[in-house]
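Help needed: design a sequence for this.
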């Protein structure tokens, strides 16, 4: 009979246990109560976003020119051919740069020049262009390499 009794105890339904469930609920409630005190209050930041503002004086835009030097030595000013590849003096470029410098000085603006040379352009030709810019007293010069087409 002891064998029969052991099987009955193993098959007995213990039912829903409420005590462990109450313990879990109290632990979770305690966790949230402790964490509620650790939460920092966010303060409103007093920032202003950029927008359109009326200015008292006119904004000066610099004069910007691009000088291109191609692989064969052709020099162009703003995509217009300005000299032949054989022209070492670049007289026409000098005259244009001198005039642009005078216009920028009289308008009290900056003259920005970008020298854009192809990767395979001769270094000597780029130096010729830089010499002309130095003679014309152009000081704001940047360099760029033309992307292959």
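Sure. Designed sequence:
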């Amino acid at each position: 009979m002891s064998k029969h009794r052991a099987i009955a105890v193993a098959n007995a339904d213990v039912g829903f246990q409420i005590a462990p469930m109450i313990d879990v609920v109290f632990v979770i409630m305690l966790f949230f109560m402790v964490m509620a005190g650790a939460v920092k209050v966010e303060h409103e930041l007093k920032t202003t976003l950029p927008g359109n503002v009326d200015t008292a004086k006119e904004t000066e835009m610099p004069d910007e020119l691009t000088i291109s030097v191609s692989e064969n030595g052709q020099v162009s000013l703003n995509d217009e051919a300005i000299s032949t590849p054989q022209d070492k003096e670049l007289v026409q470029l000098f005259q244009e740069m001198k005039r642009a410098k005078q216009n920028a000085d009289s308008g009290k603006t900056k003259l920005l020049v970008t020298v854009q040379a192809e990767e395979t352009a001769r270094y000597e030709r780029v130096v010729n262009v830089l010499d002309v810019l130095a003679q014309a007293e152009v000081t704001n010069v940047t360099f760029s390499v033309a992307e292959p087409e």
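The beta strands are 63-69, 75-77, 80-83, 111-117, 140-145.
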